[in-house]
Design a protein that fits this description.
Helix content of chain B: under 10%
Number of helices of chain B: 0
Structural class of chain A: mainly beta
Oligomer: heterodimer
Shape of chain A: globular
Order of helices and strands of chain B: EEEEEEEEEEE
Helix content of chain A: under 10%
Number of helices of chain A: 0
Largest interface: A-B, 20 and 22 residues
Strand content of chain A: over 45%
Radius of gyration of chain B: 13 Å
Distance between the termini of chain A: 38 Å
Shape of chain B: globular
Chain lengths: ~120, ~120
């Protein structure tokens, strides 16, 4: 079974609009962490935001926020006021278990911001 | 903080030769480094995890004799693709994790594109 599911292969959004990228996860471990990374065409993976399973509040980092719905096992990334430079692949990832090191990645969503 | 470099960024080699890729954490100590492989339009697949001073732990299906990993210091890990073949052509990307800036986050290098002719 897929541990991380990103159901949107591609998204097209107008500049300055907000965009939500979907991510659902599957785990039975009560301790886990969820990450979002951005991969521009140059290839590097840029860390955007982190949400721990025990965190009481949704994580925010500048224009990025994570809509964490624990009961639904979803961790959607919200980008406010999108910019042309936001065009990239976005990957959701999960680390399972306390002290675990491995990340499991979803298949990614290609976001294109139109001017 | 949390800058990870990789060298080289691109390499083209002949079939049968070996290629070494370096991964360095520039401004933090990486207790653990990870090596991933990414095929075009696909996600990242973890190849191995290495802790400083220890042998690497390889994922199922990854040949440890073909992909040699050395993590000799807290800032350097190397991946050597031995006797490379065209099917080894891929994008190889490393990540590093330490106590700072965040213990729970992997920080990635810019990747190395390997082409085997």
């Amino acid at each position: 079974a897929q541990k991380i599911t990103q159901t949107q292969p591609g998204m097209f959004v107008q500049e300055k609009e907000a965009v939500t990228l979907d991510c659902t996860y599957d785990t039975s471990d009560p301790s886990y962490g969820l990450f979002w990374y951005k991969q521009p065409s140059s290839g590097e993976m840029i860390f955007l935001i982190y949400q721990g399973s025990y965190d009481q509040q949704n994580a925010t980092e500048g224009r990025y926020s994570l809509n964490f719905q624990k009961a639904r096992k979803s961790a959607n990334l919200v980008i406010s006021a999108s910019q042309l430079g936001d065009s990239a692949m976005y990957f959701c990832a999960m680390r399972e278990g306390q002290g675990a090191q491995k990340l499991v990645f979803g298949q990614g969503t290609r976001l294109t911001i139109n001017p | 903080g949390a800058v990870v470099s990789q060298h080289p960024s691109r390499v083209i080699c002949k079939s049968g030769t070996s290629v070494k890729i370096e991964c360095r954490s520039l401004d933090f100590q990486a207790t653990t480094m990870f090596w991933y492989r990414q095929f075009p339009k696909q996600s990242l697949m973890l190849m191995a995890t290495s802790n400083e001073g220890s042998k690497a732990t390889y994922e199922q299906g990854v040949e440890k004799d073909k992909f040699l990993i050395n993590h000799a210091s807290l800032t350097l890990s190397t991946l050597t693709v031995t006797s490379a073949h065209p099917e080894d052509s891929s994008f190889y990307i490393c990540s590093a994790r330490g106590r700072r800036p965040r213990t729970d986050t992997q920080y990635f290098g810019p990747g190395t594109r390997l082409t085997v002719l």
